[in-house]
Write a structure and sequence with these properties.
Layout (H helix, E strand, L loop, with lengths): L2 H20 L7 H8 L56 E3 L2 E5 L5 E5 L5 E5 L20 E3 L2 E5 L4 E6 L5 E6 L18 H6 L1 H6 L4
Antiparallel strand pairs: 1-2, 2-3, 3-4, 5-6, 6-7, 7-8
Length: 209
């Protein structure tokens, strides 16, 4: 039964990121915390848009009168990362201040100019291509953002933090050994105790305890 340890690993990741976000080594990110609690507009800083996970944007540029006029603006090839039949692309890009951040099925991370598609930097995961105990296929469901970093959970069961400006690795924490049947495909969630308490989703469920 490998699914149960896999699920436990994901729980540990969520707890670990929550603990690290309230540890006073780095101050909490007030800007990201505000966006996590607000209606989504020009910045999309977490999987699902904000802590309500409604995947809804308040932007008004697209409406029923012009939606049929939409067309592609640009296409960028991510240097063959995640290119092949074993990989899937399931991650929702994050966007902050005109820069788009995306992770591929090989856990490689790219920063793009959101207007042009120009690659600003890339970070290669160099994960072992012999990994055979992957729960849901070779994929990543997204990134988290906070305190000047991007966070990614890798198929080799490592959680990695990257400098958001350069893609340089800041830290790496092994959750388990992939040889034991562990992998990470879920998008991490950056948050703090204050932002969780203030979120509409948290407040709506407080009466259930």
């Amino acid at each position: 039964m490998r699914c149960r340890p896999h699920s436990m690993a994901l729980v540990w990741i969520s707890i670990g990121l929550l603990i690290s976000s309230v540890t006073p080594v780095r101050g909490a990110d007030p800007e990201i915390n505000q966006w996590l609690q607000s209606a989504v507009a020009r910045n999309w800083v977490t999987n699902g848009g904000n802590l309500t996970n409604q995947r809804y944007s308040t932007l008004k540029q697209i409406d029923p009168t012009n939606v049929n006029q939409l067309k592609g603006a640009w296409m960028t090839r991510l240097k063959r990362s995640g290119f092949g039949t074993k990989y899937s692309a399931e991650a929702t890009p994050l966007v902050k201040d005109g820069i788009m951040y995306i992770v591929t099925g090989n856990d490689d991370v790219f920063a793009l100019n959101a207007k042009t598609g120009e690659i600003l930097w890339q970070r290669w995961s160099w994960i072992d291509q012999k990994i055979s105990l992957v729960c849901c296929g070779w994929l990543s469901r997204g990134l988290a953002m906070g305190e000047g970093m991007l966070f990614v959970g890798q198929l080799d069961a490592n959680v990695v933090a990257l400098d958001i400006k350069t893609g340089r690795e800041v830290w790496r924490t092994p959750i388990e050994d992939w040889h034991n049947g562990y992998s990470i495909t879920s998008a991490p969630l950056y948050s703090t105790a204050s932002s969780i308490a203030a979120s509409p989703a948290a407040n709506s469920e407080s009466g259930d305890d």
